[in-house]
Amino acid sequence: KPYVREVLMVYGNALMEQAEDDYYRQGLIVLRHVVDKYPMEREAQAIQRKIIRATDLLAAAAPSFREELSKKPNDAEAKLGLELAESAMDEQIVERRKYLAMFSKGTPWHDKWGKDKDLARQVDEMITQVRLNFAKLIHLQAQTLRAAGREEMALRKYAEAATEYETLLLADPEAAGAYDLAWTLADVLFFAGRRCDGLRTEKGELLASKEGELIAFPADRMAEVKGACESLRKSVKYFNMVRDWKGEKGKDDEGQPLDYT
User: Fold this and answer.
1) CB 149 within 8 A of CB 204
2) Cα(143)–Cα(151) distance, rounded to whole angstroms?
3) pTM confidence score
4) How does DSSP classify residue 219?
5) Closest listed residue to residue 135, CA positions, set 89, 185, 186
6) Among 8, 124, 158, 260, which lies 20 to 30 A Cα-Cα from 148?
């Protein structure tokens, strides 16, 4: 029925206006259903943006729940709150990946609505911001996994983050923040290339025989090695870009000039 989408939208938005977390999460479920059911509607991208903002809001509660649990380790409500907040942290990535897959240039939605220049400009700007935040979240996951000694999973995340950072940099190499982005990309590619020099243990240490010789990769993992070596090669390219940078470098969060040389 033509009116079903409007009813669901009103219902979902009404739930999300409630103060209780349970209603808020139910509203998210309804809005996700709307996007999945009506992906080609003009408003689908705006609804998905709202979903992204909602997951960010839910994930932001994690530190306060951790602090509460440090004082009251057996607080069941705080444990549940932290579990839900950490689940929302995963959803931050999922919902941004969904936005990029559904509304980027070349998608059916963009082909349909891209002729509306104002709308296309807004969505394209949002795509850039979503991609940057998506890359940062994946990058953070990689760093967290590496710190926890989960090297294999970390390397996959570094490679995924590198793809998004590179897409951003190549799209506009003279944009504000490009210098910082080039450095971040070079650094991420360097870590993504850690398989290139030999097999590693889960802790990231090179695997060697008793005689000290590095153990070769098995044949069925050579595609991984080639991918890692390509990442390492690219990292040199972007480190050189940073070294030879001629444009504006920008400033850090404290207002100090950036200089990675």
Assistant:
1) yes
2) 10
3) 0.79
4) G
5) 185
6) 260
